[in-house]
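the three lines:
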Amino acid sequence: MSIVVKNLSFTYGTGTAYQKKALDDINLVINEGDFVGIVGHTGSGKSTFIQHLNGLIKPQEGEVQVFDILLTNAKKPKPDLRRLRGSVGMVFQYPEYQLFEESVYKDVAFGPKNLGLNDEEIKERVKEAIELVGLDYEKVKDRAPFELSGGQKRRVAIAGIIAMRPKVLILDEPSAGLDPYGKEQILSLITRLKKDVCPTIVVISHDIDEITRFASRIVVFNESKIAYDIPMEELFEKEEELTAMGLDIPTAVKIKNDLAKKGIGLQGQIVNENDLEKAIINAYNSKRVDKNAIDDNPGDGGEEV
Amino acid sequence: MPIIQLQNVSYTYNAGSRDKVEAVKDVTLQIEEGSFVALVGHNGSGKSTLAKLLNGLLLPTSGSVSVYGIDTKRSESIYEIRKNVGMVFQNPDNQMIASIVEDDIAFGPENLGVEREEIIRRVDWALEKVGMSEHKKGTPFKMSGGQKQRLAIAGVLAIKPRVLVLDESTAMLDPRGRREVMQVAKELNRQEGITVINITHYMDEALGADRLIVMNEGKIVLDDTPSKVFAQHEYLKSIKLSVPPVTALAVRLAEQGVPIDTAVTTKEELVEELCRLL
Amino acid sequence: MKDVTFGQYYPAESVIHRLDARAKIIFSLLYMIGIFFVASYTMYLAVFIFLVSVVALAKIPLKLLFKSVKAILFILFFTAIINVLFYKQGNVLVEWWIIRITDEGINFAIKMMLRLSLLVMGTSLLTFTTTPTALTDAIESLLKPLTYIKVPVHDLAIIMSIALRFIPGLIEETDKIMMAQKARGANLDTGNFVQKIKAMLPVLIPLFVSAFRRADELADALDSRCYNASPNRTKMKVLKYEWRDLVALIIVVALFVAILLDKYLIGGEGIFVGIDRLIAQLISGMVGR
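prediction for all of em together
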């Protein structure tokens, strides 16, 4: 188990006019190898939640255990925050806005440097991270981050986190504000990172179509609580409840439902477009096979796929 | 007469210096009054520069832009142009100048010296049009992106423009916020006859537009009805754009031997097609 | 960062909220001047009771008022210590090297602390009960006469309004950037002064970049909404004095007069002379032992 959260509660601005309970008795276990998608509308508490996972916010009530590091509201013992931030990488919304160094190299090196690594190790990690995010190390390392395009800047910012070699990677709205091309690149980057670099990934997203493309598990936040943490197929049967929470179900599931209403049932689990595409092709082919069998006439366009 | 006319318009940033960038190249374009136009292109295609040329925030390096026949270069008429061409920008947080909703909406008409009673009427009207009447006395701090952007539209509506330019106004919003903003824009177009120019990189926002203009490298490369533009999915891909998700799915199905009509653009059309096939 | 209460509007329906913003500014000025004439402990108590009553009328939690004092606690103690250590008059209680503590010095220091606290509480009451927009409108209206000597009062008001509008956003942004850099292992609050400044660069640079980006877009938005279009700018909300402003004025002036009477007629020993003497004696007695 990578992360165990028990009875976590948090309130902002206690005693002011703007007092707000952001988290209310959250319990969650994230296992190694999980690809968790967190959804919830603005103000549901999901951002506050992930900020707890690498000690940016101290728990007020309850506890957060990340590997062997325990975070509670107790003053002692002090958790090893440096080690924690090395093992849980956090990519915030619009991470390119945090770039500050004069060169891409220096900016990516900022994290590893803070971990206290030696120059050689830093250099190796920076090179590796820049290449991992799909940029040409020799070409970009001396360039100013501000000269790059929006999508490139964001990849540099992600490289800055990757270079710390986290065991868990958390991304808050990683594709927000990018054009479709930039978006596609970031999404395939995340899939690649999951496969080759960081086995456990948590992604916050508003876009259910996007998140179901790769998440193996969806956790729904609503009004400071975890509303659902159930298998996706089951979750998307609750269209009404989700709509009431300001959330959508994936377009693929909507299409599946519409087809079902018209008496066409598709086989297998369908939570994203890829599933839908496969199911349609299967349905089409099997129907064709049926038809051919009945007609007993495999002549016209009968090559099987 | 078209409401906006661009004649051989070019715009170059840092003209004359070493790092000059030619953002818009020799664009000629007419926008008809009352139409709903979508303008798409990937980042850096010149579409935002084009937007800023429409109300004189930028003046063309060469060529001319005119609104109702008035050239944007005529500086004495610039407010006449801006009164007619309202513009909403990308970041909803950077467009409000007052901390209370109604005060912010009133800002435009106050600048124009509109009478007090008329300002009050316009504020109420604009808030109603964007569906935010109940937030009149509120502050924008705790609102969602979609709500804030609708307020930004209301702020522009209060100057009673004939054209509404949305300059990537949905780029920072979640899908729900995007839908809200598009809904408002469509209603304004239909009910108030306001010409809408929606500059975006989301192809699905072009659905329902009368006309879809595609920009690449500072030039207009396609200008047709949305369905005719979407039919060119190969070409769109080559200029870093995508077709609406439903069309993309149909294209992928067709590539794998399903004889589906790839001209589908909406979920309903796709379902209908699939019913025919399955 | 999230605990900044000084200068935040507290929404509530109250007679204090409804007072004309111009009147409130004038009252605040009167109050500020008045505070510097308060001489006796009795009068400090009277002013405090006045403040608490206004807070009750305004339906603001008293806690909020004390929080604004908390923000300047350091300054309070600093000035108090300086006063205690270097005030020369009065009966010497302790003398060591160049330091000389006198009973009058202690009295003076305590009164100084009370004065500053009341000052901060009173002025934050203005911002708690007045929206930033009303405040800028009021300032613009009060400064209107300056337009005759070519002061761009309206532009100043807009600048102020925009500043007020963007400050919460910038604070939030600072918070976000700090979090992001902390997540990259940045250590933002250790070391000496120079090290701290250096450590803040990863926060300051992105903050400046963001501020400029915002300014850029805001400028376009202002232009698009016809800023400066007409020399005859109108106003949706016109400020108008009401009877309650007059009542409030009478009360504030009465307080002001009472403060002056106490100082100059009674000699700053308080209406209840005994209380002040008692406090003064207590102080010298305690330290003297």
